[in-house]
Amino acid sequence: MILFCCIFWNISAFGAELYLKPVTTSELKKLYDFYGYHGEKDYLMLPSYKYPALFLSHFPKDFNKITDEKERNALFIKILAPLALKLNQEIKQERSQLLNLNNKFEQNETLSKKEILTLEELAKKYDVFTRLKEDERTRFLLRELLLKIDFIPPSLLITAAAIETNWGTSRIVKEGNSLYKMLVWHTDKGLKPIGEKEDNTYRIKTYPDIYSSMKDFALSLNSELKYADMRDIRKEFFYRDNIPFGNILAPYLIWKSPLKNYAGMFQYTLAYYELNIIDKSSLDSTISTKRLPKSLKALVM
């Protein structure tokens, strides 16, 4: 749990944020009730479009024991929605930093050594490569990174996780905090796929917490070549001052799964649960400033 706390500590400038210890479903519901985390269908925060900054590192210990599918799926969305919104706050911060570098370069055609180092670190993170040198290199990196470092619709992150984990009940979540079945190759680290007999060269990647899994998937969408078309469509929507909702970008995730009906399943799930509404939502850190009673304080880090 120490690792999870450290992951968030550096990005707590948005206000009061609460990071929860391992909890049961009953304990989590009490916290949600206390902070009024309810809405349409119990997970769409209408009409405010504001979600409380309440973050879990793992699903509740007894999450799999929820027998009511409607209740379980609603709780799944409520757990992931604040994490997806926080992730986009991080991406927004990173993009803002990049825009500042780009503006300075366009005005002066020069960056400091520290700024160049920052740019190179972002290029490495987002897999941007070129053999160009000096100003041509800087110009190329800025252009490519501005395409890559951008908004990932929360609805897309939540829907993909729901499909890949059977709404948080699958083995990959319980044993590896994996939300998206991200793979690693030629290693013994990770979860061995059940039923795989022919190919022993890959594993399902594991994580210290579910937020790390979500961040890794978002980085894949924002960096890997196979999602370049998705990023191009996203750019066009922002160019027209429109939000690229998850259902717009969903068809470009066909590379995510070998299932032939993945895109259709994705569109249906996203539309049925009206998750595009979360794409227009934001975190409200003031919601969680309400002082907790002693009975609930023990649930918070």
Structure description:
This protein is mainly α. It has one domain (2-297). It is 51% helix and 6% strand. The chain is built from 13 helices and six strands. It has helices spanning 2-9, 25-34, 69-108, 113-125, 134-148, 154-165, 171-176, 210-223, 228-239, 246-249, 262-272, 276-279, 294-297, and strands at 18-20, 50-52, 54-56, 183-185, 202-204, 282-284. Strands 1-3 form a two-stranded parallel sheet. A two-stranded parallel sheet has the order 2-6. Helix 3 (69-108) runs antiparallel to helix 5 (134-148), helix 3 (69-108) packs across helix 6 (154-165) and helix 4 packs across helix 5 (134-148). The chain is globular. The model is unreliable at 1-15 (pLDDT under 50).
Percentage of β-strand residues: 5-15%
Q: Report the helical percentage.
A: 40-55%
Residue runs with pLDDT of under 50 for 5 or more positions: 1-15
In DSSP terms (H or I, runs of 4 or more residues), the helix count works out at 13
Q: Note the gap between the termini.
A: 9 Å
Overall radius of gyration: 20 Å
C-alpha geometry? globular
Largest sheet: 2 strands, parallel
Q: What is the total number of structural domains? A: 1
Largest sheet strand order: 1-3
The secondary-structure element order is HEHEEHHHHHEEHHHHHEH
Count of beta strands: 6
Helix/strand/pairing category:
mainly alpha
